[in-house]
Amino acid sequence: MSKGSLSKLIETLNERLLTERREYLATLIETSSSLILALLAGGIVLAVLGYDPLNVYNILFRYGFGNIRYLLDKSTPLMMTGLAFAIPLIAGLFNIGGESQLYIGAFIALLAAYYTHSHVIGILAGTIAGGLLGAFIGILRVYRGINEVISSIMVNWIFFYLIIYLISGVYYNPERPHESIPIPKDARIYPISNISVIFAIAVLASILYYIILFHTDIGYKMRVTGLSTASAKYAGFNPDLSMIYSMLLGGAAAGLGGALLVLGMTYSIDDMLSAVYGLGFTGIGIGLLGRLHPIGIILASIFFSGLLIGGQWVELKTGAPPELADTLIGVIVIALAIPYVYKLLVSR
Question: What pTM did the predictor assign?
């Protein structure tokens, strides 16, 4: 390949990547329009079912976004699982293993903090554990040809039951047999003056991921790989390595989310994993809602957490069944995500 051809290829790829950045401003108008349409559609559904749309929306948003610290705490693991899905997808992989990566991150962080009495070691251990599990799925894809969706599903269930067994049979709390051993008080992460410390850590991690994706050679190679593996090879990149790195980084994000959850919110894990179950799958929606962008995912996680909290209050205040709040939230999220999902599918 001549030097001129290589320069032309790299210039073309750079132009395409710069075009992506220009499109972010356009998504603001698109997102606002989608939200208005979603609220109108949800209002029609509420009116048909006999509920006052204005009253329901007032409860949903007033109570959902009223307690800022609780809102930010709740959004923390969702932010991380959103990144766990988004980063591999940028490199062309569909990581639905955020569940198991979150489980192992929370569990390893619990053990590390319990035995060392250090939340710093707990955070590092949980992050590394999630990253290694993500990298394992990436290695299976690259070197054994095993589809990451299939391997992720299998790994999710393996670690779900493995950790339940370890919590209920080995690392249980004698005083509370249905819970794990607790995080020692000197290893817990507490809020500072009503400021959510775990949320601040998650935001810093998201900013770090933004820098990696858009201002480092590794991030550039991952994005090029996601656009075209053939172009990556032609440009002299190793797309296989980029895929593994993306799964490593995605898994590390989920592992960090699990660590922050157990160290800064629950302080233990129950034997049915109820505090962590489903957060990995919810992260898929968060990633799409945030347009696969770390900063967008921060905002998406806060918005979605507010809807979840507000949905619980809608049930309490109106006596509506939980399915109503879930349906309303689903309508809003789908309306916001559909335009981007459509573009994503068309571009691929």
Answer: 0.89
